[in-house]
Write a structure and sequence with these properties.
7 helices, about 55% helix
């Protein structure tokens, strides 16, 4: 669901809250209009509560936690360089070297670099030309 669709649904929720509709009624109306793209029931109730308490904004507030910058092109490049230097490193040791969370490193490896775990080690799903050449046996 796009951010625009979310804002649109939140605006509708705000309007319906002002009309005095219940969370169940609002959810049913959203399903009638948006079908499978309607917000989940828990999200609808969360926004109903917020608007009932006087909230005006339909956009999400900034959240605390890990900064979005931990999965930047720079961190992806650092992880790529470390893994190419030594493929036997664990996710933990790679995370310590790059100084970001292990789960972020795992996501960078699997999603950003298209690698997968083989025997507790990370390898690319598709071999590079260099790795293919290494596999060719010289008889």
């Amino acid at each position: 669901m796009s951010e625009l669709e979310l804002r649109e649904q939140r605006t509708n929720i705000e309007f319906l809250v002002k009309l005095g509709k219940s969370g169940n009624e609002i959810r049913e109306m959203l399903v009638q209009v948006y079908g499978d793209n309607a917000m989940k029931k828990t999200a609808v109730y969360k926004w109903v509560k917020r608007f009932s308490e006087g909230r005006e904004s339909v956009t999400d507030e900034e959240t605390s936690g890990w900064p979005a910058t931990s999965r930047t092109e720079e961190s992806i490049a650092k992880v790529r360089q470390i893994v190419r230097g030594n493929r036997r490193l664990t996710v933990r040791s790679t995370a310590e070297q790059v100084n970001i969370d292990r789960e972020r490193v795992r996501k960078i490896l699997t999603e950003g670099l298209n690698m997968r775990k083989v025997c507790a080690k990370i390898f690319p799903k598709e071999l590079t030309e260099e790795l293919k050449q290494r596999r060719v046996c010289s008889y």
